[in-house]
Amino acid sequence: MASRYDLTRSDLSRLLSDEPEYRVGQVWDGLHVHGQAPEQLTVLPKRLRARLAAEPAMAPALSCTVESASDEGDTLKWLWALQDGRRIETVLMHYPGRSTVCISSQAGCAMGCGFCATGQAGFERHLSTGEMVEQVVRARAAAAASGRRLSNVVFMGMGEPLANYDAVWAAVVRLHDDLGLSARHLTISTVGIVPGIRRLGGEDLPVNLAVSLHAANDVLRDELVPINRRYPLGVLIEACEAYLAARSRRLSFEWALIAGVNDRASDAGELSRVARHLGAHVNLIPLNPTPGYAARGSSPERVRQFRDRLRDLGVNATVRRNRGTAIDAACGQLRAAAAETAVTMGRLPD
Ligand code: SAH
Ligand code: SF4
User: Fold this and answer.
1) pLDDT in tens, 209-256
2) What is the pTM of this model?
3) Catalytic residue at 89?
4) pLDDT (tens digit per residue) in 163-175
5) Same domain membership, residue 290 and residue 239
6) Which ligand is nearest to the CA of 289?
7) Cα of 331 to ligand 1 centre, how many Å?
8) What is the distance in A from the centroid of ligand 1 to the CA of 255?
9) Is 185 inside a domain boundary?
10) At what angle do helices 265-278 and 300-312 cross, to 10 degrees?
């Protein structure tokens, strides 16, 4: 797909080869530093603005299908249509001291985790670097419009980022170099793709790694997260050790609490051993219900108990608020809901 944030600087240079050299920098900064569309670049002569606005390679990657707000405006969610009609989601969350955007790295996902709406829908395609960068640019503009500064990006929306490594890493570099975001404020969340974790440890930028663990024994993890059969806990833990051996990296575990499945005292015990060994922080979140999965999230009481047990066992654990439940803000849920609505309205979901 050709889109404005898929162009590299040298692509842009080629596109503007008949213009004075300094125009390249003006357009590049306009897109990246100021997040402006070509037609808004008032530093350019009108003629050039019009030419760029009509240029297919400068088209936006995303058009907004649904925008919804919840948590009194502190959570904003977009369902975008890509140029080929595929749908992806982006969620912007405002917290007291920071604003974080959660972006998608693929349309769909091939990993097949049964509890996840994206996994239930299956894989469609990888996102391009430009499709990822543009999600951040759009969210940053929305944050700025409400007087906030976007500081953090998490690759925790639809898709498995380490299954789309090259495009994801190019997006990370662009966010760091051209949007000016600190590597410490970028987090890649993975289901546990071991070769990807190893590659990540060798990169120059020390981004944070979040591993979606959900179970700390192979029998249960095989069931919850099928890729565990390929990369079982032993090799996953080794890859995490290697990642941490690289200079100043931070590791956290995601644990979606499922009532009666992974919220027992024995689960906390198993998790605590792995988390202590790796010095990992644990983020707990009660499972969001999805149509394709019968089990329920743990009750608030049970979530607190689990957190306290982890703390007693010497693990740093935080309960993450379930942001945007009212607008289906969990991974893949807005898209699933939109497809259902389309069916109800007598149209075929695409
Ligand atoms: N594929 C990557 C990143 C996208 S999923 C990964 O799995 O880490 C982002 C996070 O949402 C993961 O931690 C995933 O386990 C979690 N998640 C998926 N479905 C969920 C649900 N129904 N309730 C709570 N968390 C969920
Ligand atoms: Fe894919 Fe992550 Fe969902 Fe698993 S939890 S299906 S890896 S998006």
Assistant:
1) 999 999 999 999 999 999 999 999 999 999 999 999 987 789 999 999
2) 0.94
3) yes
4) 999 999 999 999 9
5) yes
6) 1
7) 6
8) 9
9) yes
10) 50
